[in-house]
């Protein structure tokens, strides 16, 4: 147990270190001035420039510079946006929770719908119902997410006009950013009509969440179904059946647990896809999340923002992946290592 | 068909219907106006920037000017100055100022006094005097005034008493009053500036603005929104909404979508292709007016081979303007022969124009030594403007035309702020851009677009400097006789036709699209939206 | 039958024949294969199939609706876009660019992945575990993020976005190859060839590779559908193919500007991407279940 934990912690720290080094090297790889890429400040004159060079140790070797860079990262000085001049930590602090919020609702929806439907299809494998679900999930899984989102906008917003198509909440509500999660912020805000704001926010959430979760749900269904079918073929199911256990008993005692265990690591892969999809969908729904922010940054060639944004997103995804992997390892020691998706 | 999509659609519809049956009917939604704007303002002081995005977000919302244009007739009317007089030699202007005008009270500033002569002197001296303590704050560039050479022409600004000032000019300038009424000549608070200087944060003046306008600034988040609140002590007698929100939406198709769903009450720059949709929808209104603007293709005349007028002429012959008008403006514009649109009094209807002639173009290029396979860049501005609603599309069309005469084109585009920064540095070969007049005077086209003084201020996109041209347009300002001025401008036109630093393409109509619930929306003749006097009734 | 057979021969279909038989039994998979074949044909012979030049602008034919609508004409089967270009031709060429690029990407990624994976699989110990961990990290980073970084360093363009996607696709090939090679190395037939004196290269090319092909085909189909979606998504976000290059995602993004006037400019390119990806997935799925059935029989 302790060995596993320490191994994972070392792995985690090493990966983050590699990421930080990559992010540092980007300052040199990006076009333009290294100093500007690193700090986000365009020096107005030579005095300021020399002072900055000294401060960021640009006159010393790369290792010293990297050491200072790490130090700054930990201290929370992530530099400034080249375009807006705002501290990047604040900007990311606003954008990242919006993405996490969107992605977690989508994941939640995918689990709530995907696992039961997948189990059902697996139990009824090779029946018409299973074929129906299987082909539907195949269709859902083949949608390019940006096109699906556009179709949703066209149908639900423009034709039926029942849901809004942009942002997290009507801008008329002035919700102070406390946690960065809009639903929590509404509960914490005063001076507003909370139920009205809540309703407004839910309507804004609906389409982007559906667009992302359709694809993840489809993968979820397929993963669960495959896993259930595999478990059904195991000898212990036959044994349980011969002992005279009822269908439901077999399902809850044997199938469900054994089928869900192998799915867990596969969810780690889903998270990467989910975050990518969330980032794409954000640009369509003007969702003020990290994907939208990064894409704006690349359009505006805001190199300092890209440098830190990449670090933030990659660290978040890797942290999640490693956590899931660790969790999986702890509850299922028989599994030797990380496995990958076959959808 | 498939159970999953059906299930999802059912779910969505259920939630939608249950939640939306009385959507947007609530009184809360009536308290604020949502305006979908097209881009981020550079800052909150239009003195520092000629972009319409910045002035739309500030001039008429946060600030007032000494004078204003009447929205219907375009004549000059009192604003913060209640009356004015001009001396017989045209060199002395005296203004009587309005009393009891309150500045905004916000979280970051509480004014101790009302508006007076000191504020006017501060606002003008800031851009006029290089040694003014605030001149260098925020970069020290005042492109509009620089491009007109106004600072050199003002000799003195004197305080006569608390509510009376006098401005002395060096030379007669028949467009002077009009310049004071433009979006850029806003009045700032001297008291606020002094306080910021004391606090050691003078640059906040341009990012946390204080003015006397109908709305006060609340917050701004880049790429997302600008929030304003009503200024309850506003001096004007108009009604206006409690909140004003600019929802920054760069894509015009998305702006229209939001207008249709009611997420925006009004939108900036509807695309020409979408005008019919707006006209056909019952809940939407489209106001239109012939605009004082010009869209053009400017060559960087400081880069070879574009320093050669024959090369410029060849390229002008290579394109078919009528097709561009049809494909890009969808007939919501008239063909431009020179800089001035027909709505201007100095319009010359028999001016010369280049015609589509690829044979001639090839010949001229060959004579100028430009080989087939020559590669140039066309910079296409990334945002829609009335004068060029789709620069990228126009660039693609021109790319096609130039391929016919053996010139390869690379299309370059950046986001708007970066784009203009690089343009000012002169990194382009040619650019598709344009100009909207800030006042009705023809000088407002000729001087900022092509005079030598406008190169450093970044409005002369051709980087073209011609002594004869500058002399002519200066001469035109020496007289109040319109007939005489017009004659001079005709000489300017033929000079421009000979030199072709820019190829004028179109004069577009101006449109304002908004929902029927919005009462009191008007199109200003000289650019700029205005939300004072606009209310929302659901 | 004219030929006379003296001995009763027992016919043993090869594994591939058996797989093919199983595959054909599934109608859906077969239809998917045909659809995929049609798109592949389009991609290969785009200049022959397309009635117009995809870049040719026609000012007299702006935004003509598709032929099945009231105002449509038969000359422009899918109508025209805002520059008067024929949408059908653009989509045909778009298939060529998007689908062709994706196939190329998968082949490159497969080549790279198999090489690195085999080396990692035949080695063991620390180096192999470092490779593994690095791969885990690389795999977890979203493709979009890699693409954004690469575009920032190298500039926009189809080729630059291809780097990003290759980088994202390769790790899974490495992983599967490595796992496969490792488990295979423990088997007796490898030991036998080793005792016969086979060197590492011979082991790989004669013993391991033939057994790996099925796995590669299945993984290749998964990778192909991912590559399709990634290429078009980057094109859509204007980070990949640049106009006027007809790439399905970029065509879709172009159509967004006129989405209300001309919805077919958004619907049809999107539909093509969807159909290709669906066909790939159906075929991949059919292939997997055919293999599974063959093994279980």
From TrEMBL, chain B:
Keyword flag Signal: yes
List UniProt keywords, sorted A-Z: Signal
- What is the protein name for this chain? Peptide ABC transporter substrate-binding protein SapA
Q: List each copy of the Solute-binding protein family domain by range.
A: 75-454
Q: Which NCBIfam families match?
A: PRK15109.1
Family, as annotated: Belongs to the bacterial solute-binding protein 5 family.
Q: Which GO terms describe its cellular component?
A: ATP-binding cassette (ABC) transporter complex; outer membrane-bounded periplasmic space
**A Pfam family this protein belongs to?**
SBP_bac_5
Task: Provide the gene name from the record.
Answer: sapA
- Report the record's Gene Ontology biological process terms: dipeptide transport
> What is the top-level taxon of the source organism?
Bacteria
Signal peptide per UniProt:
none
Q: Determine if Signal is one of this entry's keywords.
A: yes
**PANTHER family (UniProt xref):** D,D-DIPEPTIDE-BINDING PERIPLASMIC PROTEIN DDPA-RELATED, PERIPLASMIC BINDING COMPONENT OF ABC TRANSPORTER
UniProtKB/TrEMBL annotation, chain C:
Query: Listed GO cellular component terms?
Result: plasma membrane
SUPFAM superfamilies per UniProt: MetI-like (SSF161098)
**Biological-process GO terms, alphabetical:** transmembrane transport
Entry's transmembrane regions? 28-50, 103-122, 134-155, 216-241, 261-284
Where does this protein chiefly localize? membrane
Tell me which InterPro entries the record gives: BP-dependent_transpt_permease (IPR050366), MetI-like (IPR000515), MetI-like_sf (IPR035906), OppC_N (IPR025966)
Keywords on record: Cell inner membrane, Cell membrane, Membrane, Transmembrane, Transmembrane helix, Transport
> Which intervals hold domain ABC transmembrane type-1?
99-284
- Cell location: Cell inner membrane; Cell membrane
Q: How does it sit in the membrane?
A: Multi-pass membrane protein
Similarity-based family: Belongs to the binding-protein-dependent transport system permease family. OppBC subfamily.
Cited PANTHER family: OLIGOPEPTIDE TRANSPORT SYSTEM PERMEASE PROTEIN APPC, PUTRESCINE EXPORT SYSTEM PERMEASE PROTEIN SAPC
Instruction: State the protein's name.
Output: ABC transporter permease subunit
What are the top taxonomic ranks of the organism? Bacteria, Pseudomonadati, Pseudomonadota, Gammaproteobacteria, Alteromonadales
